[in-house]
Design a protein that fits this description.
about 70% helix; about 110 residues; mainly alpha; two-stranded antiparallel ribbon; 2 domains
């Protein structure tokens, strides 16, 4: 009987070790994503410091990203005031999907 309890204990410990290894792998991936996100934010900050804004190609013209955000936000607020659903997040994601950003080589100094 002790053999059975030892084998189930070993199985349970093995399962626990597998889960802990899985957790460690997820934590490492999360750390990498966090680090990558911080690097991206630093590059965005550098772009903003080198320019007076971010230019985005949206609806067939180059526009200031801040202006586009304000326009999308105002439209979403108007929709809410008219009794519609709050959709700013999905509207923003859709706008970004159909937009492009100029390459960093086009920076003005």
């Amino acid at each position: 009987m002790d053999v059975d309890s030892d084998s189930s204990s070993t199985c349970s410990e093995s399962s626990l070790c597998d889960e802990l290894q899985h957790l460690v792998a997820h934590c490492e991936a999360l750390h990498l994503h966090h680090h990558t996100a911080l690097e991206t934010l630093e590059r965005i900050q550098l772009l903003l410091d080198q320019r007076e804004g971010i230019t985005i190609h949206y609806q067939c013209e180059d526009r200031d990203f801040g202006d586009v955000l304000e326009e999308l936000h105002a439209g979403a607020l108007h929709e809410i005031e008219q009794g519609g659903a709050m959709r700013f997040g999905s509207i923003l994601l859709e706008a970004l999907q159909y937009s492009s950003f100029p390459s960093p080589s086009g920076l003005k100094n």
